[in-house]
Design a protein that fits this description.
Layout (H helix, E strand, L loop, with lengths): L1 H30 L2 E4 L5 E4 L14 E2 L3 H58 L2 H87 L1
Antiparallel strand pairs: 1-2, 1-3
Length: 213
């Protein structure tokens, strides 16, 4: 009994999924606009590719909303990249601040080492002098390393800043593309409606002529 209920429930879910898929396919098909040009140079639009004359089927072009969806996807990705670039810049600023703090600490150590070296030289104790010189050389090397790290972090920040500006420019371009694609689709829809109205009028004219006869 439980097994039959499970099978029945699975069948219901499967039917719902298939129905949803078919519905989405019909919706997508309704969004599509097919365009072709006849031998006289007249442009025609339709939402039913089956109505395209056989001699023009190889020249038909689909004017669907795929470009608009792609533009929106690109904009979403641009926005994500911009957020990442800004987060990277904040991290760079934090690391640069830490590097600057480390360099200030190195400067303090170096000043202390020089004072210790001066005192050792006054005392004439060779061991203390050598130890003070060793400490001074070590702290100077450490400061140079921190300076190199600061330079690298600053270059990384410049790179992240350039990436941010590039992503912002790309996003602006994608927004312009989206607006253009929307405008083109609106024009295609207007042309489609015009063609439908014209076809309806041409179909009605012979009918009226026949009725008068």
């Amino acid at each position: 009994m439980k097994r039959s209920k499970f099978i029945l429930g699975f069948q219901v879910i499967l039917i719902a999924v298939v129905a949803l898929f078919l519905s989405s396919q019909r919706t997508y098909a309704q969004e599509q606009i097919f365009k072709w040009v006849d031998e006289k140079g007249n442009v025609h639009f339709t939402q039913d590719p089956g109505t395209v004359p056989e001699q023009y089927k190889d020249k038909v072009k689909s004017q669907d909303t795929g470009a608009i969806r792609q533009d929106r996807k690109d904009i979403s990705q641009d926005t994500k990249d911009i957020r990442e670039d800004r987060a990277n810049i904040r991290t760079d600023d934090k690391e640069i601040g830490q590097d600057a703090k480390a360099i200030r600490s190195d400067d303090e150590k170096i000043r202390a080492d020089r004072r210790a070296l001066a005192e050792a030289e006054k005392s004439g104790d060779k061991a203390k002098i050598e130890e003070a010189r060793k400490n001074l050389r070590g702290d100077i090397r450490e400061r140079r390393g921190d300076m190199r790290q600061l330079g690298e972090d600053e270059r990384q920040r410049h790179e992240d800043f350039r990436n941010l500006r590039a992503e912002e420019r790309e996003r602006r371009q994608d927004v312009r593309d989206l607006r253009q694609d929307k405008a083109e689709r609106r024009q295609d829809v207007r042309d489609l409606r015009k063609d439908k109205a014209s076809a309806s009028t041409q179909h009605a004219a012979p009918a009226k002529t026949n009725a008068k006869q």
